[in-house]
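tool=predict chain=A
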Amino acid sequence: MKHTKITMSVLLALGISPLAGAADLLELYRAAQSQDATFGAARAARDAGQEKLTQGRALMLPSVNLTANTTKNDVHTVLPVDSTKKYNSHGYGVSLVQPLFREQNWALYTESELQVAQSEAQFRQAEQDLVLRVAQAYFDVLIAQDSVQLAAAQKTAIAQQLEQAKRNFEVGTATITDTHEAQARFDLIVAQEIAAQSTLEVKRRSLQQIINADPGQLSALGQNLKLEPPQPASVDQWVEDARRSNPQLAIAQAGAELADKEVDRNRGGHLPTIDIVASYNNNYTGYSSFTGGPTDVRSTSVGLQLNMPLFQGGATQSKWREADANRTRANQELENARRNVEVQTRQAYLGVVNGIAQVQALQQALKSSESLLEASKLGHEVGVRTNLDVLNAQQQAYATRRDLYQAEYNYLISQLRLKAAVGGLVEEDVTRVNQALH
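tool=predict ok
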């Protein structure tokens, strides 16, 4: 069924300046990729997460430090001879530490690999969330536009019924009740139209928040909507695919593995560490009491350093118990994520399958409602139907049409949600949905 676009007068009444051409879903999605603040934050978080691997690798590599100093000395001596010495001393040193055995550093390095994988999964989730948020906001605007249009059309039809009721009452062919009924319906639809316009403004601003621009005129749903069942036509297969590829599960799985690594790392808090330690120092002193003149001392050292933590006030054991509790929490969160993903996948699958049936049923219901409206109008003209019957038939027809529009939008959103559930929602899916717009 072809959706008519919102009229220019309604847009201007809302204070919205429409663009010269209608924007479609694909255009707004591409705009949101660079303009949406939530997605921008997710991209920055992904970039920050990738640095974890470099930081973890650095724990296995040598560290080099340079120190330098300079001091002005003014020394006054009373015994055995009263004298004053003023001189400058300075020096520098370079030290190197190469870890040989540090169990906790190795654990942190393996954790950094998991942190990178987790940040990548979080970004994939953000990419798919962006598609769903843009599509939902887009179709929210369309249904709000439809509501405004239908309210305006219904108001016009009721106004005609109201005028006819008044004329019939004046000539004595109808009672005042018909006029009151029509007037009550007219007043109600006026209120509903105002509410619909307000809702439209809110929905447009929600879409504007994502793309950081006035969306202008939007392409509406046309006659190209194809009702296609999911492939494969097995909800269990979709659930199985979701278990393997859903980003939410990947995030939770990485979190559980990280928590497990944290237990190992904290358990190693009692283990010794062994490092290669090397240093070079050069110190110059302008005066020495031993030599009576300046000295220049240079030293080089290379060796192994062992550090054995014996007692840390109970902190090591406490951190291990904390990590063990966090591992239990992470495993529970993983199980909860797995169950949620299964439910979401089944809901999205049923949303597509039942959405097709609902759209088809409402298409037939709309035909029946329109036939009822025509029959009620004809019956009213010949005196076998009342004005109230016509008003009720009008309301039913417009409500059915709106329900049909909403069902069509829900069907398209469910298609995207089903692809997102298995981690496969990409721009090509947006393009396919976009083909239903005109």
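Residues 4-20 have pLDDT under 50 and may be disordered. Residues 8-59+103-269+315-434 form a domain with the Outer membrane efflux proteins (OEP) fold (CATH 1.20.1600.10).
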